[in-house]
Amino acid sequence: SPVNNTNAKFTADLWHLLSKENAGENFVFSPVSLELLLLNASQDYTTEKATLKYATVLAIDKCFPVTERFTSITKKQFPDAKFFNAAFSRDGKKTEAYINHVVAETTKNRIKNLIPNGSLGAHTTMVLVNALYLKASFKENFTSTAIADFYDKDNKAHEIEFLEGSFEDLPYYNKDGFSMIMLPYIDEHFNLYVAINSSGSINMADVIHQTLAQKIDFESKEVDVKLPKFTMEYTADQIMDHMKMLNVRDIFNESTANFKALLKNPKDKVFVSTMRHKAFIETVSPFVESTKYSKIATARATKTIKCWT
Question: Which of 67, 80, 173, 268 is packed most tightly, with the most Cβ within 10 A?
Answer without folding.
Answer: 173
